[in-house]
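Researcher: Following up on the earlier apo prediction. This time include the ligand. It's zinc ion, with the SMILES given after the sequence.
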Amino acid sequence: MKPLTRLPDGTVKQVSPLTGTQVWTLPGRAARPLDAPEGATRPLDPALHDRHCAFCWARMLETTPEIARVVHDDLHTWRRLRAVGPESLWSTTPEFRLFPNLFEILSYDYWHLSHGFEPTPESQARRTSYLAEPAGRAQLEALARIRMRARNAPGWDAEPLAESDVDRESVGLFAGNHQVIAARRHYLDGATDDSQLASSGTLTPEEHCQYTAFAVSAMHDLYRGNPHARYVAVFQNWLRPAGASFDHLHKQIVAIDELGAQLEREAVRVQSEPDLYARWGAGYAAEQGLVVARTPTAVAFAGVGHRYPSLEVHTTRPDCPPWQLEGDEVRDFSDLLHACHAATGAHVPTNEEWHHRPPSFDLPMPLRAVLKWRVSTLAGFEGGTKIYVNTIDPWTVRDHTSGRLRELASRGLISARVQLVS
Ligand SMILES: [Zn+2]
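Model: Understood. Below is the ligand-bound prediction.
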């Protein structure tokens, strides 16, 4: 079956060339207008500046101990600091912070008991020095209590928490294989009401590049620190309808001990079709006129066969895992992803999902991201038929995105490396 078919009445039928997912777009079932804030806006309370949620940086002690941060010293100097201790947290302003997720998908116990995973020497050393500082100990005790209370573990309400509980819980608080990168801003600098959220698209291209490169390096570190990690998923849920617990920009990086059925199928297929991703990604998109922008080593286009209207960004270099890409190649990927977010708008709930070649494969698999617009809700029709109704077809996604990109480019809000197509 062809990936894209337009029927005489205007219905568009899509079949994903990679996953086989069937999607129909029916005329007259258009989505609500994109990028409008939900409901009424409320003025921001200046007293809550930088402390709107637990990911806001003025509330750093409410997150698990930080693994690393990105700081911006002056216009052109960016640095990464690792293992900033509890007494030094306020010495620099973190533009991005990496820390373990307090409630991970796969727990430390899962990895330890199923695979014999042990914390890395770096994480053990951080735990020892953190526990030795009073502020660190207090932070760990509070977090241990939250985790114990969540699973109703006996002793969670003891005052103070038993030494053995702090010791046990704190191992997982440092050795988590599910991590979060939170950006500095919750709202735009100078925001006055709660509609002015700081999203991926409102970062500067340089900030977005730092964010992307930081995620690539966190992914690499999870593979290196855990020999039982077969895959490290990187994703970003933006806004509650897309699964985010906070409307504060963050990415998640999660090690898992399986590749997943879809990646295993693709691995078999790419052995006989080494150009699988180029052929059915940018190649097919170009044939169908779906490409919206390019950088020297990456391409962005409206995706085909996704359950939600989607944009995809593919790097054109298939021969290495993401952490072996050159700096400019990461920038090319990041600039396009940033432009796609900016064109989508901060009020559209989105999932950004990365796909990459895990280190156990020696197969041509480029780094790519799918940005899904969560503008519709799946219902019984989809559940019963496995045919998904997607309210916006790929050409309409292209037209909407291209129009927004032209406007953003004219205002200098996307990278000058981004070359618009169509
Ligand atoms: Zn926040």
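Model: The chain has ten helices and 16 strands.
Researcher: Noted. I'll compare it with the apo version next.
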